[in-house]
Amino acid sequence: MVVYGEGAYECPLHGEVRPLPRAAADLEAGMFEPRCPVCDSTLSGSMVGEDAALDPRNAYATSKVAQEHLAANWARLTGGAAVALRYHNVYGPRMPRDTPYSGVAAIFRSSLESGVPPRVFEDGGQRRDFVHACDVAECNVLSLAATGTAATLAGYPVTAVPAGTLRAYNVASGTPHTVGEMAAELAVEFGGAVKPKITGEYRLGDVRHIVASPRAAARDLGFRARIGFAEGVAEFARVPLRAPAADGGT
Hints:
Elements: E1 8-11, E2 15-17, H1 24-28, E3 44-46, H2 59-78, E4 82-87, E5 89-91, H3 104-113, E6 119-120, E7 127-128, E8 130-132, H4 133-146, E9 151-153, E10 156-158, E11 166-171, E12 177-178, H5 179-189, E13 197-198, H6 215-221, H7 229-236
């Protein structure tokens, strides 16, 4: 999802706009919401589709855009078919513990397991789409089928990706939640003794809201997320995490 930068926004005066990166002075003052780059008005958010302009805002995001371009080049040169899956916030069983690279849900879970309050940056109002790892696995299988001949898999019609092309798809639940909600829900599932801490801290380059439209994956791949937020978080609070790869985790 990082290829998009900030998500989709609308200004009441100027329609669809792309906010500029948030200024350090605003973040320091606790002003976390992006504003219209034309008139400085408050914006309303909407779901971002695969046709949105790409706007990578850090080195990691730039590397993901480069991977999509390389895959598209390969498809054109070889006549192969490629699919770029733009995962949103994945969580679920066997995520690694105690690592900053596995996503905010696993970071919160590791904190709770250690009896430490999860630290929620900004005001916790950042909207994300949390999608369960089992749903992601199903989308992976459907995508592999789509790069071959047209087929039917798991009861879903699968549209083949044309030879020589790359198609990108959001892998998302379609139901956004805030980062603060994820922390609070996990804390409740852990018994509620340890509460999340809203810190007001920020990281330059972080985006405020990024939620996805999953319509294209449903249309072309037959993918629809099956595991709801409450069900998925309740399971995630109880399943074991694995050790990070650096610790020999498998």
